[in-house]
Amino acid sequence: MPNASTISESPIVVYTLNKGKGLIDSFALLWRKADRSTLDFIRRALPLKGGYTRVSIPRLYALYSLTLRCIENGIAGAYVECGVWKGGSSALVNALLQSHEPSDPRPVWLFDSFEGLPQPSEKDGAGVQDRYYSGILAADQSYVRRAHERAGSSLENVRVIPGWFNETLPQHREAIGTIAILHIDVDLYDSVYCVLSELYDQVTPGGAIVIDDYGSEKRWPGCRRAVHEFFEERELDPEIIRRSDRSGAFFHKPMSS
Ligand SMILES: C[S@@+](CC[C@H](N)C(=O)[O-])C[C@H]1O[C@@H](n2cnc3c(N)ncnc32)[C@H](O)[C@@H]1O
Questions:
Q1: Residues facing residue 252 across a β-bridge
Q2: Count of domains in the chain?
Q3: Residue 126: per-residue pLDDT
Q4: Which one of 46, 104, 139, 179 is most buried, counting C-beta atoms within 10 A?
Q5: DSSP strand pairing (249-252 vs 203-211)
Q6: What pTM value is reported for the model?
């Protein structure tokens, strides 16, 4: 059951905090890097903040820059997002893909239960088990279409797959094929571990894996734990992990793995 601290998840609070923080972070980004590309990013990202994405401006900017890098370096494969919520981060990426690959934008695959988070497990820690409950962050799938409309992108290259990752990812793995960018924004240990186990092998070497909650050690300790366990199993060096802000992280798949 929700307790008092879950008030911070009420839609109006989330909207207001997201929108205000989005504005402040956009000014800070422009202050550091006032060029055409940054302005273009802010023009696309700000309308999605608040209502359509919970991802911070620095993390959205990292995602945007990684997508541009894949396009410019010809890194093959789809954009796959696990953890879509109302579709904001995927709409931003798809708008960029459609403007740079107008005749044949690469496929975009979007996976979410749309019923919110599953039950946190022991590996998420007692704090998360107390604060979060199954069903929190549920969002009607129609928001995804609205987010893409707001970003000015169409859904022609997009497949939205509702359901739990442990069922949907094995079912669609083959159809997805190679992946250029794997965006994991799923908060919980089991969810992060499931996405990495199911899809990592399909990421093109040099492609990017983006993990939104890696740095949120207090809020989402299970996320970092899942990443580190996966790195150990695959003998990957944690030094390759880069940070986009206090919470967000990404790494490029090594050429040799
Ligand atoms: C933080 S939200 C995603 C935010 C989104 N990327 C944005 O732009 O704001 C996390 C999402 O992960 C989904 N999720 C987490 N674990 C899942 C699982 N095991 N199967 C399906 N969906 C899951 C939830 O339904 C929720 O919509």
A1: 208
A2: 1
A3: 84
A4: 179
A5: antiparallel
A6: 0.93
